[in-house]
């Protein structure tokens, strides 16, 4: 799993703070989504053939699950999970099944490397049952 926990401000003064959520010099998001999820809801349960994305939690808490895909289905024997909270981020590469269960009302941002136009998203997304 590629997890970044507790991202903190890099610069703070009397005006406020600046936090670099992602600045690796390589990543080029083509889509940024702001999502609100209710406590108890489940999202994702899919993988992307080509797209990858970072998920950054603004508030709340979720349990994130992932498993490698083998022959088009998640390998449940290799499924991992982690609890993420405000200020944490997870990376989901292509061909890795992922799902989220929200433990609190949660707001989060997705930084996707490909366009999230509906046609492109549907062509790249394979729905599976991970959780």
UniProtKB/TrEMBL annotation:
It comes from the Bacteria. Residues 8-124 form the Sugar 3,4-ketoisomerase QdtA cupin domain. This is Sugar 3,4-ketoisomerase QdtA cupin domain-containing protein. It comes from Candidatus Magasanikbacteria bacterium RIFCSPHIGHO2_02_FULL_45_10. Pfam families: FdtA.
């Amino acid at each position: 799993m590629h997890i970044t926990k507790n991202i903190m401000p890099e610069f703070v003064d009397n005006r406020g703070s600046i936090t670099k959520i992602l600045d690796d010099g390589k990543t080029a998001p083509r889509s940024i989504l702001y999502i609100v999820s209710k406590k108890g809801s489940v999202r994702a349960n899919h993988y992307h053939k080509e797209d990858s994305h970072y998920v950054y939690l603004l508030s709340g808490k979720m349990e994130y699950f992932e498993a490698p895909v083998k022959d088009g289905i998640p390998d449940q024997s290799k499924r991992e999970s982690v609890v993420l909270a405000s200020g944490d981020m997870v990376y989901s590469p292509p061909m890795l099944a992922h799902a989220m269960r929200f433990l609190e009302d949660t707001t989060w941002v997705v930084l996707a490397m490909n366009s999230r136009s509906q046609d492109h998203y549907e062509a790249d997304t394979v729905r599976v049952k991970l959780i």
